[in-house]
Amino acid sequence: MDAATSNGPKIAAPPVELERQPLVLNNRPLGWISDKVAGICENQMPKWWLPAFLISSTLMLMMFTLIAYLISTGIGVWGLNQPAAWAWDITNFVFWIGIGHAGTLISAILFLLRQKWRTSVNRAAEAMTLFAVACAGIFPVVHTGRVWYALMPGYLVPFPNSNAIWPQFRSPLLWDVFAVSTYGTVSLLFWYVGLVPDLATLRDRATSKIRKFFYGLFALGWSGSNRHWSNYEKAYLLLAGLSTPLVLSVHSIVSFDFAVSQVPGWHTTIFPPYFVAGAVFSGFGMVLTLLVPLRTLCGLQEIITVRHVELMNKVILATGSIVGYAYGMEFFIAWYGGNPYEKYAFMNRAFGPYWWAYWSMISCNVISPQLFWFKWCRTNMVFVFIVSIFVNIGMWFERFVIIVTSIHRDYLPSAWGYFRPTYVDVLTFVGSFGLFFTLFLLFMRFLPMIAISEVKGVTPQADPHHPLGGAKGGHH
Amino acid sequence: MSAPVSKTTPFALIAEFDTPADAMHAAEKIRDSGYSRWDVHTPFPIHGMDDAMGLKNSKVGWFTFVGGVSGFTGGMLMIWWMNAFDYPIVVGGKPLFSPMFPFPVCYELTILLSAFGSLFGMLFLNRLPRLYNPLLRNRRFLGVTHDKFVVVIETSDAKYSDTETRKLLADCGSKHIEMVED
After folding, report:
1. Which end of chain B, C or N, has fewer beta carbons within 10 A?
2. Chain A contacts of B40, Cβ < 8 Å?
3. How far apart are CA B152 and CA B40, in angstroms?
């Protein structure tokens, strides 16, 4: 396509009603975007930040205390016992990993699909991914009791050790180790690549020597050179292209933890796509839980516009529908397949002792996203926030239902039991939110929470063929 | 006793533009004039600037490819060596090694090492981190990360001439041209 000259036939502009809503409202100039976003890091701490930080760090410390209690006393402080040897621990692990997937979807998949609106939300979403993966990683490490075995060479990590043994690579638990570590590392690299130009922006605006030093250190000497941008854009595209199959594979591998077993209700091929769709669904729920309040609290309504929120709601509607379909399909195949154990597993889910968890899951995951067919529901911020909370709750219950209802009653009735969580289970999970929010609050205070250079790049002021970008004569 | 005066040498001529279209047209003129040690600095990548500058396709992909291939073969080799050669583990009578069961781990290692290749390849090709850049000491140049577009032509370029280069930049429409000292 001829990019250099715009001397084609003069085409009339589309009528106002057909123009898409702008990505940055009120035709703001490029510099305004820097000022607005960098201002969050540079200006005085917002009044709500410190109380929020104190609450979340208290919860985080509570979690660390409980984990110390767990490791020193034993797994018995949790409610785990035969037959439910996995319950809140693995539920929390899958819950947090799933949340992380939305960040990668926004960064990578929406980039490949050329969705420019992702630029306002991708930085915060990627940060959310990193912190969610950090929270997730805690649970598999501590859930065995003798946690040092999890990290010691030879058990999970393929490293030479004194017993001269190696991990067994046929196990999905080991595939998980590689998948989740790769996911965390690649997400970190992708996030950092995006940050480099914005750190340069903060470096150039810094007034104190400390800020200038640290922002300058991590900005690596970025100067905005187009020769550098050329390599940067290629690296960004490749990382996006790599992250897309990565995010699809990671949650598939997590689903293999269950699917590769023989437990009725777990041993099913629907799990990989079902888990991935559910992960994207829950992740977008968490993105909205974070950004809908933040856009008002930080004054970012012109950059994270109602259109952005509406588009994210549509993704929630789509993935929520896929999840709802998967629920229906599981039931159908359990009946159609004729396997009596599979049939029982599903009857037990809906009508057995955990029916309350099952129906919470259905109402939160199937019914609430369907409300987003209505424009009012999509564009009312309070309503969107409430629905996003329900999505998070529903997705936690989904993992709980899958894990606990399947294993508490499997083949032999003599092995059946009922799992009850202890306060340690519950408070450890609550504390993990403390860790998540602590990290996120630190992120938004010290790093640009919107991708400044990317948002600038999608405004009309950045388009050399648009009148606002300096193009003379003709129209875009 | 007077303090020693630091000797600064002229490093590059910088010309500031206010819109991406102006910067792009300027780049085309400079590309056509035959300069080689020059660049355009922008707050975001401008669509079409690579062609305007005459830049070839980026080579980052090669680093990614090498990373990916090493990840995959390294993973397969590692798993074969660990599970089928050094300490063979018999699991359910299955073959000691087949390409199937190592695939998830090798797939992840492919992506991991490709990602390393992309990032470190990009940094290597850009010669980053760069601890010192005379341009970043110029107050006016710092507008690049804000909202300005700056063309930089180094004095070490073969075609550089104090008068001609300055005239060329002024003809491109720049309202502010300045010499950056090193």
Report:
1. N
2. 225-226
3. 6
CA–CA separation, B40 and B49 (whole Å): 9
Helices (H), A143-171: 148-151
pLDDT along chain B (182 residues), means of 10: 70 93 94 93 94 94 97 96 91 90 96 97 95 91 93 91 90 91 88
What local confidence, expressed as pLDDT, does residue A472 receive? 79
Enumerate the residues of chain B whose CB falls inside 8 A of the CB of residue A223.
41, 130, 133, 135-136, 144
In terms of Cα–Cα distance, which of A69, A46, A50, A70 is closest to A58? A50
A253/B104 touch (CB, cutoff 8 Å), yes or no: yes
How many angstroms separate the CA of residue B86 from the nearest CA in chain A?
9
ipTM (interface pTM): 0.94
Residue with tokens 């018999």: B90
Across the interface, of A186, A203, A456, the residue whose CB is closest to B43 is A456
Residue whose C-alpha is closest to residue A131's, from A184, A205, A52, A86: A184
Q: How many CB atoms lie within 10 A of CB B98?
A: 12
CA distance A334 to A140: 30
Residues of B in contact with A193 (CB under 8 A): 119, 122
Long-range contact pairs involving B76-83 (C-beta distance under 8 Å, separation at least 24) = B76/B102, B76/B106, B78/A158, B79/A169, B79/B105, B79/B106, B82/A158, B82/A166, B82/A167, B82/A169, B83/A166, B83/A168, B83/A169, B83/A170
List the single residue in B58, B91, B94 with the smallest CB-CB distance to A234.
B58
3-state secondary structure of B43: coil
C-alpha to C-alpha distance for A82 and A416, rounded to whole angstroms: 9
Low-confidence ranges of chain A (pLDDT < 70): 1-10, 473-476
Contacts of B66 in chain A (CB under 8 A): none
Nearest to A470 among B19, B83, B87 (CB): B19
Mark yes or no for CB contact B47/A464 under 8 Å: yes
SS3 A414: helix
Q: Looking at residue A271, what is its pLDDT? A: 95
CA distance B2 to A123: 52
Question: If 0-12 CB within 10 Å is exposed, 13-18 middle and 19+ buried, where does residue B81 land?
Answer: middle
How far apart CA B56 and CA A160 sit, in angstroms, is 45
Reported as a single tens digit per residue, the pLDDT across A172-225 is 999 999 999 999 999 999 999 999 999 999 999 999 999 999 999 999 999 999
Whether residue A220 and residue B87 make contact (CB cut-off 8 A), yes or no, is no
Which token pair is B112? 């991991």
Instruction: List B151's β-bridge partners, or say none.
Output: B15, B40
Say if residues A378 and A314 touch (Cβ distance below 8 Å). Answer: yes
Exposed, middle or buried, A10 (CB in 10 Å: 0-12/13-18/19+)? exposed
pLDDT at residue A398, rounded to an integer: 96
Give the minimum alpha-carbon distance from B1 to chain A in angstroms, rounded to a whole number. Answer: 31
Distance CA A368, CA A317 (A): 9
CA distances to B61, B128, B166, B180 from B133, in Å: 27, 11, 22, 11
Inter-chain touch B133–A190, beta carbons under 8 Å? no
